[in-house]
Amino acid sequence: MSTIEDVAKLAGLSRTTVSRVINNHPYVSEDKRKLVIEAMNQLGYVPNSSARSLRSQKTDVIALFVPRIMNPFFSQLVESMEIAAAEQGYQLIICQTRYSPEKELNYMNLLKMKQVDGVVLASIQNDWKVLEPFLDYGPIVLCNEFDEQANVPSVMLDQVHGAYIATKHLLEQGHRRIAYCRGSTRSNVASHRELGFRKALAEYGIEFDEQYAFRDAFHSEDGRRVFHQMIALSNPPTAVFTGSDEVAAGIISEANKHGCSVPEQLAVVGFDNQEITELMKPTITTVHQPVDKMAQKALEVMIEKIHSRKYKQREVYEFPLKLIVRESTVSNKLAKL
């Protein structure tokens, strides 16, 4: 069995530094922390205190992984899940991965070291085969993001239908040149939304045009960028479906600044139904996601799995989405009908 001295030798660091990493001491550089984690993984090392109580220790702490806490969707998810956890006597700690596979793996060691009872993944940065071994140390529940290869509980939304109804709405308004903004190319949520977008176009006999596809759009600054990319096209789109209210707000803000009338010259649909949708001028048509219900269900499932220890099987809990029509796709008068 490997020891802390073995880890220190392999990492090329002192025993004290290794100990600080194991105990989450704040004054350790990210580079040294990474070296220690890599050495621990390579040696299969588990701290003695964790190894002794690996099967019996209970912390009453659950970790929630999000890619970006400033995204209103994830902020709402965090708040809803924290409230639900507190009501059940659990603490929720937030791990912001910033879309980094390395950060995600570092945080997963919280489960391996039994510093948390379970992990809720609201985003996934690594292939599932990389994350699956951590199931030996406790339950993992997917919430929002999902992976077809993962034999674990998944609490998700019908993203294909959400994108389909949003795109169909634009088609029903007479638009035929419709742009699409999506987030991460790794995300299955984004991929399913693209499927819904393509499905709606196909029903109207419209081929997916790659020049109208804008990827890696996450926040308002990306929306501003996308607006300029769209109007630079020789035959620019008359409508755009985005995977984020933040991106939609950035597009509308830039359109207003450059005299492009929304929705008359460019119709815009967001996704999430965040507060910003009703603060913008014009207000934003969007797809409502029942974040509170999803967060509560994910927490409920996680606690059940912590107690039953039966979590290595696929379970799917899916919630519906609905379109909220506002001024960014139709006139103010029509939006109120």
Adjacency order of strands in the biggest sheet: 2-1-3-4-5-11
CATH topology of the largest domain: Rossmann fold
Number of domains: 3
- The overall pLDDT average reads 91
Judging from the principal axes of the Cα atoms, what is the shape?
elongated
Oligomer: single chain
Which radius of gyration do the C-alpha atoms yield? Answer: 23 Å
Top-tier CATH class of the largest domain? Alpha Beta
Number-wise, the strands total: 12
Structure description:
The chain has 337 residues and is α/β, with parallel strands linked by helices. It is built from 14 helices and 12 strands. Strand 6, helix 9 (188-203) and strand 7 (213-214) form a beta-alpha-beta unit. Helix 1 packs across helix 2 and helix 5 packs across helix 13 (291-308).
Secondary-structure blueprint of this entry?
Layout: H1 4-11, H2 15-22, H3 30-43, H4 48-52, E1 61-66, H5 72-87, E2 91-96, H6 101-112, E3 118-121, H7 128-131, E4 140-143, E5 153-157, H8 159-172, E6 178-181, H9 188-203, E7 213-214, H10 220-231, E8 239-242, H11 245-257, E9 267-269, H12 276-279, E10 286-288, H13 291-308, E11 315-319, E12 322-324, H14 332-335
Parallel strand pairs: 1-2, 1-3, 3-4, 4-5, 5-11, 6-7, 6-8, 8-9
Antiparallel strand pairs: 10-12
Helix pairs in contact: 1-2, 1-3, 5-13, 8-9, 10-11
